[in-house]
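Q: Please design a sequence for this.
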């Protein structure tokens, strides 16, 4: 059986795959020269931008959803087993399917490029640009293999772009694993770092368990319905459906298999297992315990990837399963999702309150944000998907910007605590103001109105959808979140007390790390910590010229981080001034039939 392929529909994936291959070849054959690392980073960034450009071109094209990897519904014999004879392509059929315009009306497709796909693909690739920029600074130190890093990062982006387009269970699971598996290696690539290795092992174990749980649920769904296609699965579960079975000859169908509906407990178990599997991926309570240690142990670009790209992929898969395949069972899963959302935002905020470490605070804050994103899915309203995606888009820009500033300020090896940011606005006004703005956005306070608009979208959806109790829980958690975001922002504008020896190097009783006191052995770039007497170099400081390093090289290596901060800041400002930009990206009927 030969399936049709629309190469334009899969063009973003092809660009990323070709870029990944080019990175591996260049890494293998380029001489080990100083220009090799920046060159590989530039190639990776070009590939991600190229894929993003294709997604934008697909978004502005005329016509309906594009479909590929389709199986004709009229296919006879064994190849048709488990597919059925239902005509499911009438919703949103258009060019790109088999046979040209309208060709998808008689086919079941595994890959559909619709509004839902384009929003998530654009989000993943835009976040990928920021992560690549952060990676350039991470890799400039020379202790991480560059080719492997960029290859694995591109593989993760391939999965993140393919997942929202997946319209069958097999492709959905494969795409989700393609997002997850490379992250284990990315976390552990910083060799001889015990904390990174520990984080990689924890992430691996959690991901394996979540995949096993989800596959069990998926197998139950397939066993009950006999199909892997999401829309076909939804139609079968809505009621008894006659499914023709071939007896002899290509067109001879004589018997009818009736789906027995004496298995509601099995269906409930399948729904719970699938939600639990995706709950691990998005760090929802009670599947959240791994987040703090993994975020802290992973390199900061990987933590940023986990907080946005991996989380967005997990939510894309969860939404597809719940809305496209299990819409008829909303009475089963909506209350469960609502309870999980309430617990997730509450536990995440309470854990964030206790943190004195920047990355761990962002980790638990990310857990709380998952609860806010889940909340609209807990009400029985067709607009819930748009509200969840809108919040996710707002959140992505703000969180990526916060991680970028944390990377600029943090020191190598041991990431700084919140007290390291005290007085940052005086040492490095640009970084301090940027971080304060991102934190205010996450809190939802003026002038960072992006976070406020995101929460208003969710609140409105909860109230209109009959989830008033969940709206009250979210309101209480929003107040809790204000405390730790504002407390961190206040540290940025709190002057550091001048004490005896504050201007001396750390080796002779000087300022604590992050204070920014001048060093006796050379200039330390703004916002860096103070080097010790044994030559410890703060992340972002470079190697002081007096000890044999390059005076300007340290600053130059952090230029990509500055660009990432500017990009995230510009987007957050635009979202704060014109939030309708996001809402206009989310038309009604996001998910098209496969």
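A: Design:
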């Amino acid at each position: 059986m030969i399936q049709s392929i629309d190469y334009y529909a899969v063009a973003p994936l092809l660009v990323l795959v070709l870029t990944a291959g080019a990175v591996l070849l260049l890494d293998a054959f380029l001489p080990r020269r100083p220009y090799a690392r920046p060159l590989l980073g530039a190639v990776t960034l070009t590939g991600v931008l190229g894929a993003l450009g294709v997604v934008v071109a697909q978004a502005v094209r005329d016509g309906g959803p594009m479909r590929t990897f389709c199986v004709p519904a009229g296919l006879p014999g064994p190849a048709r087993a488990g597919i059925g004879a239902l005509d499911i392509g009438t919703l949103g059929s258009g060019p790109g399917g088999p046979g040209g315009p309208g060709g998808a009306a008689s086919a079941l497709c595994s890959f559909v490029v619709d509004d839902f796909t384009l929003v998530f693909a654009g989000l993943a690739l835009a976040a990928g640009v920021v992560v690549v920029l952060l990676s350039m600074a991470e890799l400039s130190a020379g202790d991480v293999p560059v080719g492997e890093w960029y290859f694995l990062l591109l593989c993760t982006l391939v999965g993140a772009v393919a997942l929202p387009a997946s319209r069958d269970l097999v492709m959905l699971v494969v795409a989700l694993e393609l997002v997850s598996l490379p992250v284990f290696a990315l976390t552990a690539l910083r060799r001889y770092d015990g904390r990174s290795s520990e984080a990689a092992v924890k992430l691996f174990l959690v991901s394996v368990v979540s995949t096993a749980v989800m596959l069990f649920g998926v197998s139950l769904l397939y066993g009950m319905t006999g199909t892997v296609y999401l829309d076909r699965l939804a139609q079968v579960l809505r009621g008894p459906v006659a499914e023709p079975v071939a007896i002899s000859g290509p067109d001879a169908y004589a018997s009818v298999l009736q789906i027995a509906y004496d298995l509601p407990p099995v269906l409930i178990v399948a729904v719970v297992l699938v939600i639990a599997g995706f709950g691990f991926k998005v760090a929802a309570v009670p599947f959240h315990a791994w987040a703090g240690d993994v975020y802290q142990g992973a390199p900061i670009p990987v933590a940023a990837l986990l907080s946005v790209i991996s989380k967005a992929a997990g939510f894309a898969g969860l939404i597809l399963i719940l809305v496209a395949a299990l819409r008829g069972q909303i009475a089963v899963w909506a209350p469960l999702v609502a309870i999980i959302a309430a617990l997730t935002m509450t536990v995440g905020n309470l854990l964030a309150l206790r943190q004195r470490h920047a990355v761990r605070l962002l980790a638990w804050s990310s857990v709380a944000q998952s609860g806010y994103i889940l909340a609209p899915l807990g009400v029985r309203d067709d607009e819930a998907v748009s509200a969840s995606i809108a919040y996710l888009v707002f959140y992505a820009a703000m969180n990526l910007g916060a991680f970028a500033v944390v990377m600029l300020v943090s020191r190598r090896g041991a990431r700084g605590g919140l007290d390291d940011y005290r007085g940052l606005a005086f040492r490095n006004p640009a970084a301090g103001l940027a971080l304060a703005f991102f934190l205010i956005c996450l809190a939802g306070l003026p002038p960072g109105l992006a976070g406020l608009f995101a929460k208003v979208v969710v609140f409105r959806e909860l109230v209109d959808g009959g989830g008033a109790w969940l709206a009250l829980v979210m309101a209480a958690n929003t107040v809790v979140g204000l405390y730790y975001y504002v407390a961190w922002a206040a540290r940025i504008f709190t002057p550091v007390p001048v004490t005896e020896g504050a201007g001396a190097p750390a080796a002779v009783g000087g300022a604590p790390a992050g204070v920014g006191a001048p060093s006796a052995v050379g200039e330390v770039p703004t916002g860096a910590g103070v080097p010790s007497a044994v030559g410890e170099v703060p992340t972002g400081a470079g190697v002081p010229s007096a000890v044999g390093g390059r005076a300007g090289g340290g600053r130059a290596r952090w230029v990509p981080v500055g660009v990432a901060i500017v990009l995230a800041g510009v987007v957050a400002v635009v979202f704060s001034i014109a939030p309708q930009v996001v809402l206009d990206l989310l038309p009604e009927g996001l998910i098209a039939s496969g």
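Q: Thanks. Anything notable?
A: The two ends are 19 Å apart (CA to CA). Residues 531 and 537 are 5 Å apart (CA to CA).
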